[in-house]
Amino acid sequence: MSMRVSWARWCWIVIFTTCTARTASDWLDCAHISTCRCKWSSGKKTATCASGDLRRPPTLSSDIQVLDLHDNPLRNLPQEVFSNIGLLNLQRLNLRATKLRSIHPDAFLELRILIEVDLADNDLAILPRDIFRGNERLRLVVLSNNPLTILLADQFPPLPHLRMLLLDGCRLRTIHTNALRNLKSLETIDLRRNQLTYLRLITFSLPALKTMSLSGNPWRCDCRLREFKDWFLESKLGTEELVCVEPSTQSGNKWRHVPSEVMTCPPEIKSSTLVVRAEVGVATSFGCWVHGIPKPKITWLFDGVDLHNSSVDCDMEETDSIVEDDNIEERVPGSVRWVNITLFNVTSSAAGEWTCVAKSVAGEARAVISLVLPRSQTATARTAPGIPQLLGVVFGALGVLAALGFVAAVGCWHFRKRSVPPSRSFMDQEKRLIDASVVVSCDRSIADMASPCNFELTERSLSIDEQPRGCAFDPVHITIEGTPGAFPPPPAEFAVPVPYGNIFISVQVSGRGEPGKYPDLLSGGATLPRRTRTCCGAPYDNMGPRVTATGSSTWSLPGASADEPSETPVLTLPPPPPEFVSL
Fold first, then answer.
1. Residue 561: strand, helix, or coil
2. Which of 171, 331, 376, 398 has the fewest CB neighbours in a 10 Å radius?
């Protein structure tokens, strides 16, 4: 019976050993991933996949407790990337230098026994809020050498076991006052080599905090750092020598050598509005926010005069307040005041510039507010024009028309006066040089020649030039006086006034002379001007018939002699007496 019991015990031992060996060989089998090696390290099942070309975490045994992926180009971590491949037993995760640029807020979700995570030397500019939600057992978080610039409010979820937070070598400029308030067990925080200029005491009011590293930041030793500086030096949280960089008066001084009294902030003022529009007889109020340490003195000026010396009825009050703008975190709590002015009865004398002035040992600041009253406007009633106004308009228009008519009449009279040639008188010598000729158009009858538009008078004098006149000109009278003597009247055919149009010629000869002869008015002849045009296709000078001193009548042809026959029909006129001379 005892033999049977011993054999059964041995069988169970062999079966258990075989199963255990097979299970152990499963998590150690990393041959399918060339860059990974699985081994025991410090009592932990460790998979080392460093310095490879992995783009995402590999699929390994769920028993792996430590995963080292540093120096792989992962670049990003998607949602629940580790839990999806069954790595729910991870306790330590090394993602250093994996070129991470973004991490999904739920990338580490369900890793409930995760203790350490290393995200150093990556390209994380933004750290998602609540990134470690569900990782309550975390004790160490390493974020060194990432381009982080700000830690937001509640940046970390409640992590009751977190002991160490490393943020050295980042670019942090601002840490919100509530960024670390959920880290009640935090003992060590490293903020070296950042861009911090000040810190708030309330940010690091953590019950378990023991060590702070702050060197390598451009500290500005003014009122915003004064409270934290005094607390840090008294708390003995660090042994480093911290140095002021700004302001210039404190540059290079160590914190412990800078008195708190000289860590001041010059006054800052922000007005509630630039323009206040008020109504006469109605109360109105306006004011400004004032910030500064030490507490600045506030005065109001009205048009450059101190309000206490003016006659404006007003009330001024001061209350602690805050300025709701983007720089609220930069102001020391309790250092901002609201200074209000109330005018109980606005009058016209209250309109003008109101200036809020803040002064302290650190400097001076001003803000100007303009009080504007509405302009008073007087309405003018419009009435319909009466009868006198209408009569004035009518007579005025008539007067203007009459004046225009008078001006037009005077202008017309002057024009017509200039168009009438003045009368002329000739000397005896000039009278002998006058040559008058009647020009007749071709193919016209004597009846047609009765029209004044078919005749032209050409006058030419050796000493006086006259322009030829056209049709319908005013009458021209020419009077010729001859030498003394009695002469018979001209023939009847030359006494007809019609062919001569608007030219009337009268010959007056008195005195004694040779009987039976007309006076020689031409003195041997005169040159008659020829016209440049031709008529009826013939090269005649269209000067018409002339009666010479010998009594002959002929058509004048350029270059033709008197005995050459002319083919052009000659106007038939009865021959004048030989002694008659045509003018």
1. coil
2. 376
Cα atoms found within 13 Å of the Cα of residue 63, Cβ hemisphere only: 14
176-220 pLDDT, tens digit each: 999 999 999 999 999 999 999 999 999 999 999 999 999 999 999
User: What CA–CA distances, in Å, run from 462 to 231, 466, 547?
Assistant: 130, 11, 22
Q: Taking a C-beta distance cutoff of 8 angstroms, is the pair 64, 27 a contact?
A: yes
What is the Cα–Cα distance from 49 to 58, expressed in whole angstroms?
Answer: 9
Cut 0.90: pTM above it: no
pLDDT higher than 50, residue 509: no
Nearest to residue 231, comparing CAs of 191, 188, 202, 265?
Answer: 202
Q: What span, in angstroms and rounded, lies between the C-alpha atoms of 567 and 572? A: 14
Radius of gyration of the chain from Cα atoms?
A: 64
| 8 Å CB contact between 565 and 554 | no
Distance CA 267, CA 114 (A): 50
More confident residue, 265 or 453: 265
Residue 329 near residue 174 (C-beta atoms within 8 A): yes
Q: If DSSP codes are grouped into helix, strand and coil, which group holds residue 117?
A: strand
- Within 10 A of 559 (CB to CB), how many other CB atoms are there? 6
The count of other CB atoms within 10 Å of the CB of residue 62 is 13
Token digits of residue 88? 């729910």
Q: How far apart are CA 488 and CA 183, in angstroms?
A: 154
Q: Is 337 helix (H, G, I), strand (E, B) or coil?
A: strand
548-554-559-563 Cα dihedral, nearest 10 degrees: -100
What's the pLDDT tens digit per position in 295-329? 899 888 888 888 777 777 778 888 877 665 555 56
Res 462 pLDDT > 80: no
Half-sphere exposure of 189 (CA within 13 A, CB side): 18
